[in-house]
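Before the break, one more example. Copy the sequence into your notebook; we will annotate it together after we see the structure.
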Amino acid sequence: MRLTEKVHHILTNHLKEGDRAIDSTAGNGYDTLFLAEQVGPSGKVIAIDIQDCAIRSTRERLESAGLIDRVRLVTEDHAVALRKLIVDGHENVAAITFNLGYLPGSDKSIQTCAESTEEALVASIQLLTPDGYLCVTAYRGHSGGTSEAETVETFMRSARSEGHSVECHEPGSSNSPPVLWVLKKN
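Here is what the structure looks like once it is written out:
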């Protein structure tokens, strides 16, 4: 099972009609679409990406599926956007996803970075409802990817020591495969 499929499997068993969810790295919109399907007509998804082209792609995917009304699209760095959501009182989010790295098929020099991702993860914990899920897929095979993956690992190990349930899923491979961290808030 691919890591993205694993995330979807976990969240299918967790999300329900009326929930709120966040896709912190909208990319091409696949996770946003999945989340919009799961939360149903009375739910809401916020999709964040720093790139206009990613938000456009996500919008097109949602419009094609007839689900654009369930999603608010935000063009901004994920750390900044998530901090604003805290200030605006958007707590009680059932699930937050991150698919770190760069947007496939676009400028690879535009990518998530360890410092911003760490800030976004800290904000995510504050936004999640108890028993809410934080799913972070970190890609290590690109410039800056290893450093960012190490930052995520450090964050997750600290969260585990604070009582949150944390699992790591790492495909067996001799190169640098992506790693999935799944946190369930205590």
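The mean pLDDT is 95. The two ends are 27 Å apart (CA to CA). Try to locate both features in your own notes.
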